[in-house]
């Protein structure tokens, strides 16, 4: 085998290792395209783009673990892409159904501020922009389902209560982790 062949062979696995990052960045591109579809109120294109963005979210983490390329950087790229995607849900809803958003603006803003703050506090305290667990995935799924349902048929009271309950539990978990971390760091110097 020549030197050139071995170099090409070595480059391929390295490039494959970037695929999970590419999927996360592709999610951000889908989010940008989705704004155009929402602006035009093109529901079929909107639905396809959102589903493609969700697919990239579903695939990037497991693919990184499968390839052995999972890293804190990759998790932060994924979380940043998630933040862009999930923060867009109320904006897209407003583009399709401004009445729905205006009727629920205080709670939407409260959740948005709490989620963005939790992510940035998590980055500062833990070095991780977000949380990747079942509850965070469930809250993301509920957010997408409630957005789609709201755009298509209006706000269902049961879905509304479910969304508030799941999002509140997710936020409680995120802030709980931050509080536990702060308390552990506060006690650590005294133990020395």
| Domains (count) | 1
- The average pLDDT score comes to 87
Biggest pleated-sheet summary: none
Identify the quaternary structure here: single chain
> Residue share in helices?
over 70%
Q: What's the overall geometry?
A: globular
Q: Give the CATH topology.
A: Four Helix Bundle (Hemerythrin (Met), subunit A)
Helix-strand pattern: HHHHHHHH
| CATH architectural label | Up-down Bundle
Annotation, overall tally of beta strands = 0
The separation of the N and C termini measures: 57 Å
Rg over CA atoms: 20 Å
Share of β-strand residues = under 5%
Low-confidence stretches: 1-12
Structural overview:
By secondary structure, the protein is mainly α. It has a single domain, classed as Four Helix Bundle (Hemerythrin (Met), subunit A). 89% of the residues lie in helices and 0% in strands. The protein contains eight helices and no strands. It has helices at 3-17, 19-40, 43-67, 72-96, 98-103, 105-126, 134-153, 157-191. Helix 3 runs antiparallel to helix 4 and helix 7 runs antiparallel to helix 8 (157-191). It is globular, with a radius of gyration of 20 Å.
Summarize it:
This protein has 192 residues and is mainly alpha-helical.
């Amino acid at each position: 085998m020549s030197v050139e062949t071995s170099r090409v062979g070595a480059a391929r696995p390295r490039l494959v290792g970037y695929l999970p990052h590419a999927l996360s960045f592709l999610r951000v591109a889908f989010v940008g395209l989705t704004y155009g579809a929402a602006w035009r109120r093109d529901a079929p294109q909107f639905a396809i783009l959102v589903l493609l963005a969700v697919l990239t979210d579903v695939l990037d983490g497991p693919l990184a673990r499968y390839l052995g390329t999972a890293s804190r950087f990759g998790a932060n790229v994924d979380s940043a892409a998630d933040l862009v995607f999930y923060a867009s849900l109320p904006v897209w809803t407003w583009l399709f159904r401004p009445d729905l958003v205006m009727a629920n603006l205080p709670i939407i803003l409260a959740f948005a501020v709490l989620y963005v703050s939790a992510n940035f506090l998590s980055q500062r305290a833990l070095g991780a922009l977000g949380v990747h667990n079942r509850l965070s995935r469930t809250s993301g799924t509920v957010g997408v389902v409630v957005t789609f349902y709201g755009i298509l048929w209006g706000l269902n009271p049961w879905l509304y209560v479910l969304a508030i309950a799941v999002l509140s539990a997710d936020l409680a978990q995120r802030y709980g982790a931050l509080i536990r971390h702060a308390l552990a760091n506060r006690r650590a110097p005294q133990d020395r």
